[in-house]
Structures are given as C-alpha cells and as structure tokens.
C-alpha cells in the first residue's frame, strides 16, 4: 500500500500533467474558465476549476475512513499541492464539499450568503460568478460548446431558454443576433442573476429580451403565444419544489416536456435538450420529432473529455 507521501506525489504529478496540457489548450481557445482536474485519482476525489485568477475546489464526500484530524491534514496537504502546482494565492481558493448527488436532490443548493460576485469572460461575453453561496458557480462550463452552437445559428431567430438558470445561453443568443430571447426559470434568484448578466453585457432592449419567473412545466403547458425557432431545455434531474404544481423527474417526464416544447416550435425549429442524469435513456419512439441527434460528444469541451456526465440532444421537427 502506498504511503501518504507517495499518494501526494502521485497527485502532484497528475495535477501538474493535466494542468500543463489543458492550460495550453485554454490559452489557444481564449478560455479563462475551465476544469483542471476531476477525480482523476481515487485517493483525491475533488474537482478543480479555474475562474480567471480564482480556483474553485469541490470535495466529493465519501466514506474515507479518516478521523476529522486526519481528514483535515489530508485536505491541507492536497491544498498545498494545488497552490504549488497552479501557482495561485491560497486566499483565492474557494472550497466546497459536494455530496454524491442522487436524482432526488435539488439541482442547486444554497450553502452561504456572502453575495460576493465577480465577472469572467467566455468567448468575449461577461458572466457573473459566485463561488461562495452555492455549490454551482453560475456558469456550467460543460456547455461552453453548446452555447456557441446556439449563438452561431440564432441570427434573426427567436430563442426560448427554459430552466434558464443564470441565463448564459440567453446571453449567447443575444450576442448571436437573436430577434427575441425569452428566459424562464422558477427561481427569483436565478432570474435576477440572468438579468444582471445581460446588464453586464450592455444588453438592455426590453422589446427583445424578457425574463419570466415561472414554473417551466406550467408555462409550456399553457403557452398560446408566439412560437420560437430555437428552444433550450436543461431541466433538473428531479425537483419537488413547493413552487411547482407537481414533482418533476426527467426520466419519467422528458417525453411530455419535449413534446410540449415541440408544440411551441416554428416549422424547421430546433430544441437543444440536456440532462445530467447519467442513466438517462431518451424515448425516441414517443417524441414527436422528425430527427433526434445525440450531440453529447460533439458538445464536449476539451476539459471534460472522458469526464462528462451529461447527455445532450439536438431535436428537430
């Protein structure tokens, strides 16, 4: 069995290798928010992401068999390796503990109320990040390519962003020249955050951009308004929020969800559907679309290769 010193050396060597490799790709692509490491070694079950000059670390809680004192020592030693390898100030490191998610847990969870925000740039657009208050940071790095895909095809088209979170897809659509962008989420916090992301990018045309705090399921069921050319659907795996009329389970309800979205599409329209449920199986036979294409690999960024735990589909009428 390897000693703790040997394990730390293994971690340092691995981290140094992936950091050097990915840093070159990030620089070439002009990306300053990217995932460095994600549970590469079983002895170090952590995720490390860079947001500009700040480092976000999530420790995946597991049965490690260590006392609190031993665990604190292990964590201090791991942090020392990270500081040394990434050459970052320890005061710019943000540490969270993330339990293993089962599909019954909420997608987003508040853990603090510091309310410290800062801006990062992705593909020339600004996004507000919060590394203190939530397990998620405000920008899902794994959809970097998918966002660009939407931006590149939405010129003069109408875009609906459902379960919009902080509105990153919506910002991309606005920058892509969409004629109309509607962002819908049940959370006041995330709708406000999305609006702030638009303000950060000087996107302030109320005739083109709207933000709705609504239960998405009820919104699409009752919608009789103008249709859309592109719809982005990235629902939680499971939700039983008190704000909802009923519970939502993506495996059980994705067919009705997608079919209701299809009703809101203009002829020739496109739905981008994504889910984090690793065991997800799309029911193509009961979805009323002319074409359903799995674009998971196509939308996997360089820093998530071999580590991506989500599915993404392009669905067309």
Can you tell me the overall shape? Answer: globular
In which order are the strands of the major sheet placed? 9-8-7-10-13-15-14
Write down the Rg: 20 Å
Number of strands: 15
The largest sheet, given as strand count, sense and whether it forms a barrel, is: 7 strands, mixed
Question: In what range is the share of β-strand residues?
Answer: 25-35%
- Quaternary structure annotation: single chain
Unreliable parts:
101-108
C-alpha termini separation: 57 Å
The number of distinct helices, counting runs of at least 4 residues, comes to 7
Please write the string of helix (H) and strand (E) elements.
HEEEHEEEHEHEHEHEEEHEEE
Share of helix, binned: 25-40%
- Would you tell me the overall average pLDDT? 92
Structural class: alpha/beta
Description of the structure:
The strands form 4 sheets. Strands 9-8-7-10-13-15-14 form a 7-stranded mixed sheet, sandwiched between helices. It has a 4-stranded mixed sheet with strand order 1-2-3-4. A two-stranded antiparallel sheet has the order 5-6. The protein is an alpha/beta fold and 317 residues long. The protein has helices at residues 4-29, 68-86, 144-153, 168-175, 188-200, 216-222, 250-262, and strands spanning 33-38, 46-51, 54-60, 93-98, 118-122, 125-129, 158-162, 180-185, 209-213, 228-233, 238-239, 248-249, 265-275, 291-294, 311-316.
């Amino acid at each position: 069995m390897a000693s703790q010193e040997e394990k730390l050396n293994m971690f340092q060597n691995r981290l140094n290798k992936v950091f050097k490799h990915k840093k070159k790709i990030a620089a070439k692509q002009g990306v300053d928010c990217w995932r460095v490491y994600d549970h590469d070694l079983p002895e170090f079950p952590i995720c490390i992401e860079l947001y500009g000059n700040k480092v976000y670390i999530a420790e995946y809680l597991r049965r490690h068999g260590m006392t609190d004192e031993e665990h604190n020592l292990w964590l201090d030693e791991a942090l020392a390796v990270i500081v040394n390898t990434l050459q970052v100030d320890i005061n710019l490191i943000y540490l969270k503990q993330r339990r293993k998610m089962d599909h019954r847990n909420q997608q987003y969870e508040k853990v603090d109320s510091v309310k410290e925000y800062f801006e990062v740039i992705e593909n020339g657009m600004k996004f507000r990040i919060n590394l203190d208050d939530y397990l998620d940071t405000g920008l899902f790095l794994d959809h970097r390519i998918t966002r660009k895909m939407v931006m590149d095809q939405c010129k003069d088209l109408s875009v609906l962003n459902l379960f919009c979170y902080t509105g990153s897809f919506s910002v991309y659509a606005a920058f892509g020249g969409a004629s109309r962008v509607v962002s819908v989420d049940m959370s006041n916090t995330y709708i406000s955050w999305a609006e702030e992301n638009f303000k950060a990018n000087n996107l302030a045309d109320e005739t083109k951009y709207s933000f709705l705090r609504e239960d998405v399921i009820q919104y699409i069921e009752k919608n009789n308004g103008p249709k859309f050319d592109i719809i982005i659907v990235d629902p939680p795996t499971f939700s039983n929020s008190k704000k909802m009329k009923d519970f939502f389970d993506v495996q059980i309800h994705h067919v009705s969800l997608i079919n209701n979205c299809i009703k809101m599409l203009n002829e020739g329209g496109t739905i981008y559907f994504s889910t984090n449920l690793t065991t997800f199986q799309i029911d193509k036979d009961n979805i009323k679309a002319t074409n359903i294409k799995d674009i998971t690999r196509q939308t996997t960024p360089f820093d998530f290769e071999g580590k991506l735990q989500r599915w993404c589909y392009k669905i067309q009428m």
